[in-house]
Design goal:
CATH topology of one domain in chain A: Thiol Ester Dehydrase, Chain A
CATH superfamily of one domain in chain A: Hotdog Thioesterase
Distance between the termini of chain A: 34 Å
Oligomer: homodimer
Low-confidence stretches of chain A: none
Radius of gyration of chain A: 16 Å
Structural class of chain A: alpha+beta
Largest sheet of chain A: 5 strands, antiparallel
Strand order of the largest sheet of chain A: 1-3-4-5-2
Number of helices of chain A: 5
CATH architecture of one domain in chain A: Roll
C-alpha cells in the first residue's frame, strides 16, 4: 500500500487537500503570509491517530455537550499546525526553532481557520513572526521563530 | 466511507495506534506523565494532509540531504502534538490554553519520541506543566498551560 492511499481516503472522508505554493514576496519586516484551511471531522480523527490524543472533548459529542464548550472542539494543536504550513510557504527553507501560542477561543469542527503571520524581527537567518489564527473571531495568537535557509 | 477506514489505512501503512488510557495518579505539583509514540512515514504524510505543510525538508529526501540536516526530518509540530496526547491523559478533561516550545534537535522519521510532562504550578483549575520530548537526546523543551475540569 502506498501513502497516496491515505490521501485518497482522507479526501473521500471530506478532507481538504491544499496545493503547496511558495510565496514570492520579498522577505522583510512587515511581510505577511495568509493561509487558510477547513478543519473537518477527518482532520480531527487524523490528529488523533497521529498524536494519540483521543481526548473525548474532541471525539465524544455527548460528553462534550455537557462541558462548558457545549460541544466538540478541534485540538488546539491541530489549529496551530496551520501556522507550520503558513511559514513553510516562505521562499527558502523554513525550520521552526520556537513557538509560543495562546489558545483564546475554541474552534469547531467544520470551521475554516485563517492564519496570518507577519515578520516582526530579522537577525541573520533567524526570523520572528507574529502568528494569529481566525475563524469568525481570533482563536489563537502567538509568535514563532524560524531559521530560513 | 467511515472514519475507521482512515485508521485501517493508517495502520496498514505502518502507523502506530495508541490505546488512550487515563492516568490515575493524584494531580499535584511534581506529578509526571510519560507518553511515547513512534513517528512513522505515515505520520509525516498525515501531518502534511491535515495541515497543508508540504515543506520538502519533510518529504523530499534528495532535497533534504543537501541541507544542514543531511536528510528528512519530522515536522516540529508533529513531535509536539505528542505533548497534547500526554496532557490529555490527566484525569479530568484537559484543555490547552498556552504552549511554548523550543525545538532543539531534529527528529528523524522512524524514531520514537518520549514525552515527559511535570506539573510545576497549580492555580485554581489552571495547571502549568514543564514539557520535554526525547529521542536519544532531548529534542524539545517547553511549557504548557491547561485548564483541567
Amino acid at each position: 500500500m502506498e501513502l497516496k492511499e491515505l490521501e485518497r481516503t482522507y479526501t473521500e472522508l471530506g478532507g481538504e487537500v491544499k496545493k503547496f505554493k511558495k510565496e514570492r514576496g520579498k522577505i522583510e519586516i512587515g511581510y505577511r503570509i495568509r493561509y487558510s484551511k477547513k478543519i473537518s471531522e477527518v482532520d480531527v480523527f487524523a490528529f488523533g491517530l497521529m498524536s494519540g490524543d483521543w481526548n473525548p472533548i474532541h471525539f465524544d459529542e455527548e460528553f462534550a455537550s455537557k462541558t462548558r464548550f457545549a460541544g466538540r472542539v478541534v485540538h488546539g494543536m491541530l489549529t496551530t499546525s496551520l501556522v507550520s504550513a503558513a511559514v513553510a510557504k516562505l521562499s527558502g527553507t523554513a525550520v521552526l526553532i520556537e513557538t509560543k501560542f495562546s489558545y483564546l477561543k475554541p474552534v469547531r469542527i467544520g470551521e475554516t481557520v485563517e492564519v496570518v503571520c507577519e515578520i516582526t524581527e530579522i537577525k541573520g537567518n533567524k526570523y520572528t513572526l507574529k502568528a494569529e489564527c481566525f475563524t469568525e473571531e481570533k482563536v489563537v495568537e502567538g509568535e514563532v521563530q524560524i531559521l530560513l535557509w
